[in-house]
Amino acid sequence: MQKLILPLAIACLAFSCSPKKEAAIFPVVIATWDSGKPVCEASWEVLSQTDGRALDAVEKGANSIENTINCCVGLGGNPDRDGHVTLDASIMDEQMNCGSVAFLERIKNPISVARAVMEKTPHVMLVGEGAQQFAVENGFTLESGELSEGAKKSYEKWLEKSEYKPVINIEQSQGAGQHVDVPKKLENGDYNHDTMGLLALDNGQNLSGACTTSGMGFKMRGRVGDSPIIGSGLFVDNEVGAAVATGQGEEVIRVAGTHLVVEFMRQGNSPEDACRLACERIINVNPEKAKTFQVAFIALNKAGEYGGYAIQPNFSYAIKKGEQDTEVIKAKSHYSKEDLK
Ligand code: GLY
User: Fold this and answer.
1) From the CB of 227, is ligand 1 less than 6 Å away?
2) Is residue 97 packed enough to be buried (19+ CB in 10 Å), middle (13-18) or exposed (0-12)?
3) Which residues are 244's β-sheet partners?
4) Ligand 1 mean position to 95 CA, how many Å?
5) CA–CA separation, 237 vs 134, rounded Å?
6) Does ligand 1 lie within 6 Å of residue 249's CB atom?
7) CA–CA separation, 88 and 105 (whole Å)
8) Closest protein CA for atom 4 of ligand 1
């Protein structure tokens, strides 16, 4: 046996037959959902510069969707059950610096407030009134708090259907601790949580990530999801890779989802496999319940390899690299449409 090993080793050295590693590809940016396409393009304006930093790129991408009116990110998003839009966001760079805000009201760009928390305070997370006060002190405008047209309509519709009553009446009539259910799906059939998560690898081969959301529409007042929680909604480890989550935040928090994805990559799994393994971890908590909600992860490793995976079908993500056009990829999922019939 030993006789064979030596010549093989010499041959390997001569013809470099060590396991082949693809050359790293960067810069690259990926973002959740079809709506990630313009977000990747906004990030690319930074990443395409020779010295464009991944952190600036993800902030710019997140800002671009926060500045539009849509159901699930920014001040145009669906409100909580009391009619207020409350925003969650987090950001993380290549040095494990991280910042986040939760339950933030009337501020247009929560991701930039999260970055200010990271860069200007000794803390990682600010919430509610304190986060708003910090934002205003740092030059962010306090907006009116009025709902967007779309959110107003959805909220009125939700009030009808859910037979909503003021919280105090619910507590009196149904007993403390009971609450109106948050709908799992929106009126149009989409899952109620299209968080924007994005990850970038820049020309210096450094990773950063951002995650921004108005959270579940019609949630209980004060509810915070996974998006502002480092290790749940977002995690970046510049030695290995980065991951971001979208979907029902409670299920992601339970398993510290994005930290798990990064650890799976550290063990040698591809980004897609790491996302799949984290989804399976969630499913294993309660397989029956897992048929009723959506969770999806996307991940990007240090070599610029990327992937995504979801529990339910119909999750997509966008990717931009090199001079190629931004592509939208339909992710694989644990359940198929047929499984759920
Ligand atoms: N993943 C967003 C949320 O649950 O709020």
Assistant:
1) yes
2) middle
3) 234, 298
4) 25
5) 28
6) yes
7) 9
8) 249
Q: Report d(CA 293, CA 316) in Å as an integer.
A: 16
Question: What does 155-218 look like in DSSP terms, one character per residue?
Answer: HHHHHHHTT---HHHHHHHH-TT--PPPPSB-TTS-BS---EEEEEE-TTS-EEEEEEE--STT
The domain spans of the chain are 26-336
pLDDT tens for 252-293 read: 999 999 999 999 999 999 999 999 999 999 999 999 999 989
Rounded Cα distance, 47 and 200, in Å:
8
Q: What is the mean pLDDT of residues 318-340?
A: 92
Report the nearest atom of ligand 1 relative to the CA of 224: 5
CA distance 223 to 202: 34
Q: Which of 195, 212, 213, 326 is catalytic?
A: 195
CATH architecture, domain 26-336? 4-Layer Sandwich (3.60)
Sheet containing 316-321: give its strands across: 125-127, 98-104, 87-92, 207-213, 196-201, 28-32, 316-321, 327-330
The reply to whether 195 belongs to the active site is yes
Distance, CA of 118 to CA of 115 (rounded, Å): 5
For the stretch 143-188, pLDDT in tens is 999 999 999 998 998 888 775 543 332 232 233 333 445 555 556 6
For residue 217, the CA-to-ligand 1 centroid distance in Å is 10
Classified as helix, coil or strand, 314 is: coil
Interval between CA 86 and ligand 1 midpoint (Å): 12
Q: How far is the CA of 17 from the centre of ligand 1 (A)?
A: 46
| Residue 132 near ligand 1, beta carbon < 6 Å | no
* Residue (of 224, 338, 243, 235) closest to 291 by Cα position: 338
Q: What is the pTM of this model?
A: 0.88
| Rounded CA separation 305/321 (Å) | 11
Task: Return the amino acid letter for 183.
Answer: P
